[in-house]
Amino acid sequence: xxxxxxxxxxxxxxxxxxxxxxxxxxxxxxxxxxxxxxxxxxxxxxxxxxxxxxxxxxxxxxxxxxxxxxxxxxxxxxxxxxxxxxxxxxxxxxxxxxxxxxxxxxxxxxxxxxxxxxxx
Length: 120
Fold this sequence. Notes:
It contains three helices and eight strands, in the order E-E-E-E-H-H-E-E-H-E-E. By secondary structure, it is α+β, with helices and mostly antiparallel strands. It is globular and about 40 Å long.
């Protein structure tokens, strides 16, 4: 089976993103959506979040860079199970506003997570 590294989608009327069938097993642990470093969103599997991101955010309590990363990735963070029936995840409006996503979006794999951006 081929690896999917890119897909485009339209959000439904309830602001839900339908994940391609080929990616649903990868996201079966659930998803975490956060603000990105710029005007895009990060979408992680819950497994990747727990195993890689959380440990990276637990640096020195007095280190300002660690604090900045925590604020960046926790502000507006949502965790959600993947809708098993339709393979959808709800994207909250404040996150869509941050990334400038109205209805159409592009998802691109960036290593072990996905970047979600507005489709031009």
